[in-house]
Specification:
LPLAT_7/PORCN-like, about 725 residues, transferase, 26 helices, about 0% strand, acyltransferase, mainly alpha, membrane, MBOAT_fam
């Protein structure tokens, strides 16, 4: 039996104390018990969205009302009178959204929300400095992310054109002002009010209205979606069970090791003076790792709650398995075994990373992107000095890691053994660097962190600065092909992917950073494309625009010719981007190896044309064969080839008519059937009518098959 760590009771906690007896029984503080009770209740209540509150059974208004009501109840239960801030901040921001011009609404909401949040942060530091007790600042940080991301999406949808937006911004752009019910349901819904994760407004509205589950497996891609009435909804049961079990494992690890490596011991004089520097590094790495498992527990459980309600579905993988990682906040294994700081950052607090990228990194000049992103992240967390030390150190370390990767990585890619050695070495170095950079974040104090950094002799800071400013002068980095387009711009070729191409200035510093930054863009582009199968009206326009811009030309790179007339409007728009990160790909006439790419494209188009001709020919022959078969059946109905009996009865044939068949002479048969000469013929009409009815049914089936199969074949045959 694990003895739980002793948590200090906080007298400043304003939430419910009904379950104090349970807190004393399990050895946890009452605020943590209240948090767990709400999250476990939310896990079970979330399943109602897939049963009693399914979109096919109730209206979206009822789903909105249920989500925000439970969220407000949880907020009051956990925070008491402080819950007034949960209502105050979004109410003020909603007034700003409804009253301000869309051209400036994003800045106004960001200013109001951050000011409100910082005031609450400051108040908490005054009355409860250094406490880790559950308080209102956590939900307010999530609400700030929601209202600011909504404001920027409104600005993108109402003001900016698709050609000015990235793929993610195009996907999240909002072109209809949210109603009060939709807005407050988005802000207060119980699935993410306590611990996140961040859900963008468009994803949440699609969830409430039931459109997020309309994606289909790749195996059904040849079906006509408009004619399909039944959609098999994916089940999140496996994903929920996996994340709940992972959350429990992380809670177990945290409870087990937090007593062995308590963070407070790092501030003690005995630890600073009587331990070696190697042990200090080891202790900092282990202490921060233990603290991380507390966040793993909370985020995995919150993600399971969202998935259990049907929120977080991204579509299907290539094998037809459903994926539930749209709003996942953490990738535990990817973070713990990351081989560089960029991968570690991308897999930690993914919702906040997406928020920072959407608000800052993609909208500011590229040379200031990293610095301003870390600055907003630090301010968003609060005023504790340890936060700013961590993010300042992180900015230096990330820049050094990019430079070091460019200088050394290519030297270890010759054999599989050297590649494996490089990956293992960088993974271990990343563990040490994370401990070195993040321990001020958990210590919170300025002087305690500075004293410990001095005991480390600031060695990683010095190594980082040397890597950034000195090593590039003596060590040649990885060569990257660069070609000028005559306008002072260069294109860097990375792995050969189109997304790795970016137009940057010719300064060597910006050029060396550009290719690495583009790798970070893949995560957000993947997020924007993860619901490509979902029927939305914004995505096709973006795809058409990209196809139009990237038309190949036959001119070499060093010749600047006027563009084709039909491309002139698009090129004018691309020549004047409104932000530094609006172009993920460039026209072919501005890329190196233009002639080779043009030839390859011509070959691909020729092969595609041959395939189309073959498919058209096959389809035409198939359709004509079906039509001929149908005509034969119709001919058999009109001229049945019946075998005549020995006597020449009522059915006769004219042997002199060149073998042609004639219709049955029904006029020779009397209505009363008394003609004895036609007694034999009266036995055959029922058989003929039965055969004709059978053939008619077969023809109806063939008609139905032709009407359904031929359009599908044609649509797939003409798809490139």
């Amino acid at each position: 039996m694990i003895e739980p760590p002793k948590f200090i009771e906080n007298d400043c906690y304003n939430g419910s104390r009904t379950f104090t007896w349970l807190a004393d029984m399990v050895g946890l503080s009452v605020d943590l018990v209240n948090f767990l009770i709400c999250q476990i209740s939310a896990l079970f209540l979330a399943s109602l969205f897939r049963s009693m509150l399914h979109p096919s059974k109730v209206s979206s208004k009822l789903r909105h009302t249920f989500a925000l009501s439970i969220g407000l109840a949880f907020g009051y239960f956990c925070f008491g009178q402080q819950a007034i801030h949960i209502a105050g901040l979004p109410a003020i921001c909603y007034i700003v959204i409804r009253t301000q011009d869309p051209r400036i609404v994003q800045r106004a909401v960001l200013l109001v929300a951050m000011s409100y949040l910082l005031c609450v942060h400051l108040m908490r530091q005054l009355y409860d400095y250094g406490s880790y007790a559950l308080d209102i600042t956590g939900p307010l940080m999530i609400i700030t992310q929601k209202v600011t991301s909504l404001a920027f999406s409104i600005h993108d949808g109402f003001v900016r054109g698709d050609e000015e937006l990235t793929k993610a911004q195009q996907y999240h752009a909002i072109r209809k002002m949210p109603s009060a019910l939709e807005y407050f349901s988005y802000v207060w819904h119980f699935q993410s009010i306590l611990a996140g994760p961040l859900v963008f407004y468009k994803d949440y509205i699609e969830f409430v209205e039931g459109y997020n589950l309309l994606s289909t497996p790749p195996g059904n891609g040849n079906l006509d979606i408009s004619k399909r009435e039944v959609v098999l909804e994916p089940s999140p049961t496996k994903a929920v069970i996996r994340k709940v079990v992972g959350s429990l494992v992380c809670a177990f690890i945290f409870m087990k090791f937090v007593k062995i490596y308590p963070v407070k011991d790092m501030k003690e004089d005995d630890f600073m003076n009587n331990t070696s520097m190697v042990y200090k590094y080891w202790y900092a790495m282990m202490a921060t790792t233990c603290i991380r498992f507390k966040y793993y527990h909370a985020w995995l459980l919150a993600d399971a709650i969202c998935n259990n309600s049907g929120l977080g579905f991204t579509g299907y993988d290539k094998d037809g398995n459903s994926k539930w990682d749209l709003i996942s906040n953490i990738n535990v294994l990817s973070f713990e075994f990351s081989t560089n700081m960029r991968d570690a950052i991308n897999n930690w607090n993914c919702g906040t990373n997406r928020w920072l990228r959407t608000l800052v990194y993609e909208r500011v000049p590229k040379q200031y992107g990293t610095l301003l992103t870390f600055a907003l992240s630090a301010v968003w967390h609060g005023f504790y000095p340890g936060y700013y030390l961590t993010f300042a150190t992180g900015a230096v370390v990330v820049t050094a890691a990019r430079t070091g990767r460019r200088l050394f990585r290519h030297r270890f890619q010759s054999t599989q053994v050297t590649r494996m050695f490089y990956d293992i070495l960088t993974c271990l170095i990343t563990r040490v660097v994370l401990g070195y950079a993040t321990f001020p974040f958990v210590l919170l104090e300025f002087m305690g962190s500075i004293k410990l950094y001095l005991r480390f002799y600031l060695c990683l800071h010095i190594i980082s600065l040397v890597t950034i400013f000195i090593l590039p002068k003596f060590i040649r980095g990885e060569r990257r092909l660069r070609t000028s387009n005559g306008n002072g711009n260069v294109r860097l070729s990375g792995s050969g992917n189109t997304k790795d191409a970016v137009t940057t200035s010719v300064e060597s510093k910006a050029a060396s950073t550009a290719a690495n930054d583009l790798n970070e863009d893949r995560e957000e582009d993947k997020h924007a494309q993860c619901k490509a199968n979902t029927p939305t009206h914004q995505q096709p326009a973006a795809g058409l625009h990209k196809t139009t811009v990237e038309q190949p030309t036959e001119q070499p790179n060093n010749v600047n010719l006027p563009p084709r007339p039909q491309q002139q409007p698009h090129l004018e728009k691309k020549a004047m981007p409104t932000c530094a990160r609006d172009a993920v790909s460039v026209p072919h006439d501005q890329c190196e190896m233009d002639q080779l790419s043009s030839k390859l494209k011509e070959k691909i188009e020729a092969e595609t044309k041959n395939i189309e001709e073959f498919i058209d020919k096959t389809v035409t022959e198939t359709v004509s064969g079906i039509k001929e078969f149908k005509n034969d059946l119709m001919r058999d109905i009109e001229f049945p080839k019946l075998k005549l009996p020995g006597s020449n009865g009522g059915i006769y044939s004219d042997s002199s008519n060149s073998g042609g068949l004639r219709k049955r002479n029904i006029s020779s048969v009397h209505d009363n059937g008394t003609d004895p000469g036609h007694a034999t013929a009266d036995l055959h009409p029922p058989l003929e009518e039965n055969g004709a009815a059978f053939l008619k049914k077969e023809i109806e089936v063939i008609n139905a098959v032709v009407q359904q199969a031929v359009p599908a074949v044609l649509s797939n045959g003409h798809a490139k």
